Amino acid sequence: MATKNLLQAIHEGLAEEMRSDESVMVLGEDVGRAGGVFRVTQGLQEEFGEARVLDTPLAESLIVGSAIGLSANGMRPVAEIQFGDFITPAFDQIVNEAAKFYYRSNGAWNCPITIRAPYGAVHGGGLYHSQSIEAWFSNTPGLKVVAPTFPADAKAMIKSAIRDPNPVLFLEHKRTYRLIKEDVPDDNPEVPIGEARVHREGADITVVAYGLMLYTALEVADKLLEEQGLETEVVEPRTLYPLDKETILESARKTGKFLVVSEANLTGSVSAEIAAVVAREAFEWLDAPVMRLGSPDVPAAAFARPMMDHFVPSAEKIEAAMLELAAY
Amino acid sequence: MAIGETRAHHEALGLDEDDLRRLYYHMLVARRVDERSWILNRQGKAAFVISCQGQEAAQVGAAYNLRPGYDYLYPYYRDSGMTLLLGQTPRGQFLSILGRAEDPNSGGRQMPGHFSDRGLNIVTTSAPVGVQYPQATGTALAFKMRGEDGVALVCGGEASTSGGDWHEAMNFAGIHDLPVVFLIENNVYSISTPAPAQVAGAIARRAEGFGFPGYEVDGNDVLAVYEVAREAFERARRGEGPTLIEAKTYRITAHSSDDDDRRYREREEIEEWRLKDPIVRFEKYLLENGVLDEAGRDEIDERIKAEVAEASAYAEKAPFAEPESVLTGVYAEA
Predict the structure, then answer these.
(1) ipTM of this complex prediction, to 2 decimal places
(2) pTM score > 0.80 for this model?
(3) Partner residue facing A73 (CB), from B72, B172, B331
(4) Mean pLDDT rounded to a whole number for chain B
(5) Is the residue at B121 inside a domain?
């Protein structure tokens, strides 16, 4: 057993899949010798060669489009989009092509591709290396959107994504790449796509979060337990589309007080969908209005550090929201 | 190359008389299916028709080089001449046009012309123009990675070369010498916009900039298209890389059954092109070279018309899919 950060865990998951299945390959910008701008694919080209770890031209539609064509001819490609902000040229290939292959061919053609994309605000990232892109894709039937936060989950879920017969968008929060470390056992259990995780149990309030916000919410939950005896149940969706509604609803019904936190712009977010589900299906169990905390509806995220810090929901804001909910 | 007379050279191409009759049969099947589709539309039975008419030589001539079920085809919405040649049937085409459950492309989920056939390696197609090009390069890359001699044929109209996907795919194919054949069926119109307002320079010559050969060919001459495509397929199979073919042809019908082309082109222009009809032209070649006589030609046409009538009647009686089935089949099961 070894302690891994998120980057290392995803790397390991990729490498193991490539070792066990010759059809698995990686393609993207600078993924080869450089190992990707975040080093997730470092060393893979050395081990698996230039063909299976392919440096592509700087053309996102081509990266995803060629991955689709590879999958139609027996391969299991993992396409890396260097920053989620740059995924937009590939939008057509993801939403109109990969996601609809199976449905539109009446089940004849499926599209087993994985698209990895780092997302989320990071200091120095500015307006085009910071966005939370999950809402753009989380109302596309045929596509699966996952965003694991912890290393062991991420390693297991990159494997699930690669093995899935459908296209999977695999989102990685940049600020958690090196922030979160944990033991990732060799016999790391599988994590199927579509299952949420309850990180800590609690009777008083529920907080649903993912990415950096999950990490922050867990810290705040520890603090409020210690300082005020507040028992917070923290649930991580892990898969954003389709949602594990049952696990989320079970927690909402148990505590009767529900808050969902994400870094995305609030309006039309995945949080909005989660809140709507809870408001409708846990209504009779609720003791407080369903609450949401997200980034304001301005572009993510300004370059200057104080501006960015003002934009992203902070631990203080999360704590205030949790206390407001608890006091209801 | 100007649209000229068909040259008498099938033997030099290694085509025997059976090949010629097969080429002719498939061009004519595509035409007759298409004509019948318009009748179904005007009768109010078919919601939408999109045609291959005028492009049959380019389609059948190029696709005759494919090994069905081994090589891959990424067609565009007019390529019924190709899909019928590979093994789809008139019955399937009418089932698709009428949106019936047995539609082989999509079970009634897609508009006509959105071909798909897993067994024949016809990759499912959509409506956004040009998306197929990057996909075809990926398929070609898979062949190359496994050391197989498969080829991907990918097709589109001249307007499909205007968007980024085409250029991205051409670049990628050139970088890796991928076994892909790009066939541009330049039919002069993208709905109403004529090629001079769509295309800068010459499409075929763009290949040079990407480091591989590009050919312009008389797209109404089935043997000329077959010849240049054969060279492209052989080059791909030898591992030497991609080829771009621009087949100069003409769209005889309106863009679709929802389009009125009187708004943007003269009747005289169409009549001029009808004289260059690729089927009439090939017929002339077959008659002159003694491959067919008039009775033989009529016999083929009658056979096709009967087959088309039967197929159309079958499709008209065929059931729709259960309405509730619209809710299923979104995700493949592991």
Answers:
(1) 0.97
(2) yes
(3) B72
(4) 96
(5) yes
